[in-house]
Amino acid sequence: MKLLIIGSGGREHAIAKKLLVSPKVSTVFCAKGNIGMKKDGIQLVDISEENHEALIFFAQQNKIDWTFVGPEIPLLNGIVDDFQAAGLKIFGPNKAAASIEGSKEFAKKLMEDNEIPTADYEVFTDYQAACAYVKEKGAPIVIKADGLAAGKGVTVALTLAEALQALTEMMADHRFGKSGDKVVVEEFLSGEEFSLLAFVRNEKVYPMVVAQDHKRAYDGDRGPNTGGMGAYSPVPQISTEIVESAVEKILKPAAAGMIKNQTPFTGILYAGLIATANGPKVIEFNARFGDPETQIVLPRLTSDLAEIISDLLNDQEPELTWSDQAVVGVVLAAEGYPGDYQKGLAVPEFEDLTVYYAGIVDDQGMMRSSGGRVLLAAAEASTIAKAQKKVYQALIKADTTGYFYRKDIGAKAQK
């Protein structure tokens, strides 16, 4: 098989690398990809993820068996609809189904209609009304931009001042453009967070192993929200019973609800969950693989990823098997991220770690940083503690001048 991946980050690097392991796959192209992917034999295609017409032409000319969409923007722009209209196989939700991520309000309504446990909420388009509601409810409280904001449109406000500042940034200062014209204000839920992803084909749900992401920029879950500073799997503090409950009460009703809604979902459904005293509840849904969770979860998959997706595209039952090994991944970010950060930094090399590249560019054959999150370094071992030790020993040895990383990825699993 010849396959095409849409996207350029660490998530797409992990997907493409896993697909190349399959004996059934001869070539994996990535559009646009990044120079770091070439180390793993992934072929880069210089076509933007926004240029659907050129991507369709490439897939036709190169007789691509099927295409996999990594990021959310092309999904919300209808790339699946466009490929299908051209008679091409592609894995991911269509534009209507991708609204489960594209609109917090859509997702909340889906949960409400299908009795899926989540935080109580209100939706606002009026800034003054939102402020009045927040003052009435008090803190802690959660403020979310309705639309996409690259993982940064959520503020868990522990004080009233923080909540009002978040509303000002989103609705008055338009920090996230139109994504913040509408906000969802939610009750604060306490408990252990975890990520549960699943392959979905209409009403059929095939869950993956769980992971835990670290969203805050600094150790001890301090600082601003980011796209994710690292992750690990398994998550021993999340019991099998909690995961099974989440599959039965959240994932399966969500898939069934999307059909009832006349927006059937095919692709990767990501549920960001929290284990509360009253069972698991939904924080958010995404319509694609999470980043950095993908880089942690896929190495534990022992069955053939290409075969799984081929089976789903052909309405057949896939087989999923998983390793008991632990994986810990740490993101190396440019100093200043998620605010202003320097670009053009030399990209360090690591011994004995698996590296997934993200915000990098080719500078005359050398890798240079171009984004906030530059790479994720991952280690695999028999336990989380051993994987953690391995990844941090390598990071300490490397020259990470101009970068920062969290020193506590996986620490909660040690408690």
TrEMBL record:
An example Gene Ontology molecular-function term: phosphoribosylamine-glycine ligase activity
Specify the ATP-grasp domain's residue ranges. 108-314
UniProt keyword annotations, A-Z: ATP-binding, Ligase, Manganese, Nucleotide-binding, Purine biosynthesis
Q: In which pathway does it act?
A: Purine metabolism; IMP biosynthesis via de novo pathway; N(1)-(5-phospho-D-ribosyl)glycinamide from 5-phospho-alpha-D-ribose 1-diphosphate: step 2/2
Check the record and name the InterPro entries matching this protein.
ATP-grasp, ATP_grasp_subdomain_1, PreATP-grasp_dom_sf, PRibGlycinamid_synth_ATP-grasp, PRibGlycinamide_synth, PRibGlycinamide_synth_C-dom, PRibGlycinamide_synth_C_sf, PRibGlycinamide_synth_CS
Its top-level enzyme class, in one word, is ligase
What PROSITE patterns does this protein map onto? ATP_GRASP, GARS
Cofactor(s) for this UniProt protein: Mg(2+); Mn(2+)
Q: Which reaction does it catalyse?
A: 5-phospho-beta-D-ribosylamine + glycine + ATP = N(1)-(5-phospho-beta-D-ribosyl)glycinamide + ADP + phosphate + H(+)
SUPFAM superfamilies hit by this protein: Glutathione synthetase ATP-binding domain-like, PreATP-grasp domain, Rudiment single hybrid motif
Which domain of life, per UniProt?
A: Bacteria
EC number(s) per UniProt? 6.3.4.13
UniProt family annotation: Belongs to the GARS family.
Check the record and name the PANTHER family matching this protein.
PHOSPHORIBOSYLAMINE--GLYCINE LIGASE, PHOSPHORIBOSYLAMINE--GLYCINE LIGASE, CHLOROPLASTIC
Q: What is this protein called?
A: Phosphoribosylamine--glycine ligase
Gene symbol of the encoding locus: purD
